[in-house]
Design a protein that fits this description.
single chain; mainly alpha
Length: about 425
């Protein structure tokens, strides 16, 4: 082999790593590869395989790049939430909250119920459970469903910022940063609470002027099936035990894994019904993304790309928050977090940087319908009864996003 050819190999690998990384992130941004049916999980698999096949990372190296703590935590929380959902826990909570209220109390209760549930359980599942009950409550109360559906989407995103287990990007940040569950909660719960209040203010301001009460819409909806209280006992106790473990300082992945294992010890429920609730595509997407970003880092190409992110100016709370928000809307929040994770340890206050990354990547999801999976779930689940247009969402999503990001950035700057 000639000396020239030998010298060219690193450059070829550098080019290949850059091409794979950029191609994968193009799919993450668009949702599909143009002209083909390659979705985000598929792009994750293809990109990871190419990183190994082209020798950018070794098979053993690829496995080392996958953060097992994050995968275990995400999978375990999916199992716990699936067991709760199948037992009727979310139906029970939403029925209590939504069917015993006067119309004027419905909006704040939807906002704060979604926010509280999303803080401790994955926000996508909360949206799945809440939409049908909000539609039922709207019919019975004689109110237009649009503001309440928007409340479900935006409040679920805002509430999920409070804890490591609120959404997938927070799970990633919790694993990489080493920030404890209680520390994360103490710093970001005030952001979530203030964000929910701002969400209520914006929705009330946008919709109250036109009136949201429509007595002609009030109908007697059929009574929902009663929840079997006996089925709720074990899942509720296990979930409470897992949350207590988090708050007492147990490693989140281990606490969640123990809870998931206990949930699967059953004589009555077919485990297949639980496995069907697990979003396997998300787990595949995460695994592939770890390898793609790891390969880009190992090649040295990503370091060149992120030089700007290591400058003192980029570490300014306002600049960093705005950059994360824009990037999260371009490529989605999880890929944005993976892209920026290597720049945060170099901050003058790394913990503040991690918390800003969690806050901005989550709250930025409220900007547009496609900003988060939770928003898309609400739009699709509501479609048979209520249409939510891009304009409907954006006119509340824009002010909610700007206000919550401004408060979150200011709060974390003050308490750093």
């Amino acid at each position: 082999m000639s000396a020239l050819h030998t010298a060219a190999l690193p450059q070829l690998k550098l080019f290949a790593a850059a091409a794979i990384f950029l191609g994968s992130y193009l799919v993450f941004a668009l949702g599909k590869f143009p002209g083909m049916k390659i979705d985000r999980p598929g792009a994750g698999v293809i990109g990871a395989v190419l990183m190994v096949a082209l020798g950018i990372v070794t098979p053993a190296g690829a496995l080392r790049f996958i953060d097992l703590q994050t995968i275990v935590l995400l999978f375990s929380m999916m199992i716990i939430v699936a067991a709760l959902r199948l037992a009727g826990f979310f139906d029970w909570i939403t029925r209590i909250v939504l069917t015993r209220l006067q119309p004027r109390h419905l909006l704040p209760m939807v906002i704060f119920t979604c926010g509280l549930l999303s803080a401790f359980f994955v926000n996508d599942i909360v949206c799945l459970a809440m939409v049908p009950f909000v539609l039922t409550a709207a019919r019975q109360s004689g109110v237009k469903p649009l503001p309440y559906l928007l409340a479900v989407a935006t409040a679920s995103n805002i509430g999920s910022v409070a804890t490591i287990t609120g959404n997938p990007q927070n799970m990633l940040i919790g694993s990489y940063s080493g920030i404890g569950y209680r520390t994360f909660l103490l710093h970001l719960a005030p952001v979530a609470l203030a964000g929910l209040l701002l969400c209520w203010l914006v929705l009330h301001w946008v919709f109250a002027r036109g009136g949201i009460h429509d007595p002609a819409r009030a109908i007697a909806a059929p009574a929902a099936a009663a929840v079997d209280g006996a089925r709720l006992v074990k899942p509720t106790i296990v979930a409470a035990g897992v949350l207590a473990g988090f708050l007492l300082g147990a490693p989140p992945a281990m606490a969640a894994a123990l809870g998931a294992a206990v949930m699967l010890i059953t004589r009555t429920r077919d485990p297949e019904s639980v496995y069907r609730q697990v979003d396997w595509g998300v787990l595949v997407f995460f695994s592939g993304l770890f390898v793609i970003v790891g390969g880009a880092e190992a090649s040295g190409w990503l370091d060149r790309l992120l030089r700007l992110a290591r400058t003192p100016g980029f570490q300014n709370a306002g600049v960093f928050t705005a950059a994360v928000a824009v990037l999260s809307n371009l490529v989605s929040n999880v890929p944005a977090v993976m892209l920026l994770k290597s720049s945060v340890p170099g901050f003058a206050h790394p913990q503040t940087g991690w918390l800003l990354l969690a806050m901005a990547s989550t709250l930025a999801g409220n900007l547009t319908i496609t900003g988060s999976v939770a928003n898309i779930i609400v739009v699709e689940r509501a479609r048979p009864e209520a249409e939510i247009s891009f304009r409907d969402y954006f006119r509340v999503g824009l002010p909610i996003t700007l206000l919550t990001l401004a408060f979150g950035g200011l709060w974390l700057w003050l308490v750093r």
